[in-house]
Amino acid sequence: MKKLSILALSVFMLAACSESKSDTATVAGEQAVAAQAGETLSIDSAASTVKWTAYHKGGLNPRFGTTSTSGTFSVQDGNLVSGSLVSDINSLTTDPAAVDPAMSDGKTSADLDAHLKSADFFDTEKYPSVKFDITKVEDLPAGTASKTEGANKLVSGNMTIKDKTVNVSFPAKVDVAVDGLNIVSKFTINRQDWGLTYGTEGDPKDWMISQDVDLELNLTARK
């Protein structure tokens, strides 16, 4: 039993100390939204993906899936200047590979979808979407390390989850072309910055879930 306990602790610590594959977003209070300017491009929802990954404590048992996103970007003189995105949380889908019923008391990915949409988490009956409004886009400072390959911009925006808005900033690769643009980014947010908890504060059920949530964006917008 002692050997098993030591092994379990070792696995826990290894997962907790493993290198992150995404950048940690910096947060601030709500900021003024960037004004639209230049040409407006619409997100191609079918060609765009928003992936999420959440974990149990120590990075164990990751749960992952997708949500659909719509919205627009503004481009002026070959640069991204503003944008407004909406993710439909009712479209949230957990990848079946992320949930093994044999390891989760018979629960499936569909069960997790329903739980995440319930009042325990997103409460989609009252708050059906997550919104992101760009507040600033600037060149990524020279020498800035990023887990997003080819990152060239620092994107900041107001992210609204349920009834709370927090400004987040993260590196991104922004490519503007004649016929549209593409934005790629991998960053981590802390769900508790938005008060997104399971049960009341200090509830053991919430403690077992990591505060970190990884988001991976691959957004395509067209004229």
Automatic annotation (TrEMBL):
<keyword id="KW-0732">Signal</keyword>
<dbReference type="InterPro" id="IPR036761">
    <property type="entry name" value="TTHA0802/YceI-like_sf"/>
</dbReference>
<dbReference type="InterPro" id="IPR007372">
    <property type="entry name" value="Lipid/polyisoprenoid-bd_YceI"/>
</dbReference>
<dbReference type="Pfam" id="PF04264">
    <property type="entry name" value="YceI"/>
</dbReference>
<feature type="domain" description="Lipid/polyisoprenoid-binding YceI-like">
    <location>
        <begin position="40"/>
        <end position="222"/>
    </location>
</feature>
<feature type="signal peptide">
    <location>
        <begin position="1"/>
        <end position="21"/>
    </location>
</feature>
<protein>
    <submittedName>
        <fullName>YceI family protein</fullName>
    </submittedName>
</protein>
